Fold this sequence. Notes:
Chain A: Residues 1-17 form the signal peptide. The structure holds two protein chains of two kinds. Chain A is mainly alpha-helical.
Amino acid sequence: MAAPLVLVVLAAVTVRAALFRSSLAAFISERVEVASPLSAWKRVVEGLALLDLGVSPYSGAVFHETPLIIYLFHFLIEYAELVFMITDVLTAVALYLAIQDFNKVVFKKQKLLIELDKYASDVAELIRTPMEMHYIPLKVALFYLLNPYTVMSCVAKSTCSINNTVIAFFILATIKGSAFLSAIFLALATYQSLYPVTLFAPALLYLLQRQFIPVKLKSKSFWLYTLQYGALYLCSLVVIICLSFFLLNSWDFIPSVYGFILSVPDLTPNIGLFWYFFAEMFEHFSLFFVCVFQINVFFYTIPLAVKLKEHPMFFMFVQLAIISIFKSYPTVGDVALYMALLPVWSHLYRFLQNIFMLSCVLVVCSLLFPVLWHLWIYAGSANSNFYYAITLTFNIGQILLISDYFYAFLRREYYLTHGLYLQKQDGTEAMLVLK
Amino acid sequence: FQDQAEQFFRSSHTNNWAVLVCTSRFWFNYRHVANTLSVYRSVKRLGIPDSHIVLMLADDMACNPRNPKPATVFSHKNMELNVYGDDVEVDYRSYEVTVENFLRVLTGRIPPSTPRSKRLLSDDRSNILIYMTGHGGNGFLKFQDSEEITNVELADAFEQMWQKRRYNELLFIIDTCQGASMYERFYSPNIMALASSQVGEDSLSHQPDLGIGVHLMDRYTFYVLEFLEEIHPASQTNMNDLFQVCPKSLCVSTPGHRTDLFQRDPQNVLITDFFGSVRKVEITAETISLDPNLTTFESKPPKEELAAEPLKYAEQLPVAQIIHQKPKQKDWHPPGGFILGLWALIIMVFFKSYGIKHMKHIF
């Protein structure tokens, strides 16, 4: 399996290199869908230039990345293109290895459940075979590397790619079972963009599953492991933050990075939901609505944890999607990450209800983004409502996609345990309805 | 004759300019246009030529469809005095009277295509009269019913003028409600300011004309003009008399003035230093030897530390100093402690996760 992966990687690197050398690079790096105030490359360069002039890069609300990024790019600024290509490749390889291992786990679990007779008798067509699961890791790497969103993100040199890499390594570490590395990568991801803290729950559930610790509130080993993992995570987070303090000898970066993410002062249009609302919100209410919007990201963790505690990887996928839909400054790079994981659940295809319409919605919206931007900003014949409509539709499409997958997953689980041809009490055919 | 010669140099200006601005439009603001045109007439009568007057009128009252007497703008009731006519040269008319244009005129930052008549081509020996009228409030003056100029902007514009040596002395007269707030923020030297009302007071209009149907003049300007009618180019009337114009009994509002930025004593400032363009020509058959150290006219010691500087021309930073003012390009390096800490952590994590036994493969 290494050879096809290498081929895919080579193809991806070629595409990116070609785009870097073309005139599209400048155009793409200006696009608001790709470069948000958090992740724009322009701002990184500006921050480094400010540092060279002897001024703190966090003065003036230009630079909102973490000090570790400053350190990384201080020495690598001339090789920036190479760095971003390498991060993309690393993400793809990490996802590939992670999904390979995950497939093994899934298959083992499935075998166990079959032998324990947990499945109903007529679900033969729902059982997954190694044959069909063989190419999934490659498809995941392919989906990530050749996704136009990723390519645009890489060409724009958006630091979202680096965030994706860290999250991919976190997923790899979690699946491999190393709580230590998983906590460290999660701390790095949280340190960079704060929202991955919600991935703590799925990672914890997965690690508990691996250690065969049942998730019961009264169980002591459960709490012990949770505390261990939580302590590892928090300690590494604290260590990283303290280390960042020593880079510039100031705590400036905390309001600039985390204050910025949480309080959303910059209302440049992006593909998210925050900008339009807060552009016309009265000052009086803005604090309340910022809180409401931010809670939206963290809110689904507990219910999903309750529902999906047997399937932490799916939970992680849904959580990643929720982060990239509801975060304060989303970009298409975030979307690319969870879309890369779609092939892992390609066996749910038969249960997806709206997949055709949703893929049309997503494709059309992505194509309409630049069109309506041009109409609004340059031609002046549209206004922000048009662009926001497309943003809304795109996000609705994403939400419906996730809920479609969620429902399909639950349906499959239900069919597995209750049989494919459901019957009501009196023997007629029953329909499964999501309540 | 020595004295006379020194008196010759008492006021240090050589040319006069006037910037007369009416900022309101619409028919019912007839009086503001009439104010400005009356001041224009007086200033022209006292000698400032059209080439040295920048007249900005925000609306055309003479040809307004509501004017029962077209092509006239009256400044006195019973239509006694028509201040309009075919020798009125309006430089900025109608929608050209904006805050931006006004500030550009003052500071001289005008596009190269602007005609001469629209420029204030003053130099460091110019005395400038700036007269503004319209609707104002505490700290601002309304332009054209759609924008405002604040007292801070105005003060900064005057400071720009000072730094570019665009005036020798400046007289600022404003006839609006709460006019005194507009001169509160001035901080450049050699500015004298007069206003028609204090902060919190309204300036009132003088008399309506029932034939035309609007108020024709504002009180303050009316009495200032009555005062100016007595002035002729050789008048020796000084500023203190101008400060007495329009007491509260006549004007209902309390006029204010500000002289703390002005170097000379208002007693010694002639009205014609600002309102007229008096050429200092004196014909004599005698020869007068001018003392090379004509320092006696600078008898007043400089009140603030600025005064020593401004009386000299072009006191600027030496060019050599300016050239070397680029900031030194110090390269920033991350502190050693940080690098050490970071890499120590990374190595610790690596060995913790992969085991100490790998160490011996490396070393």
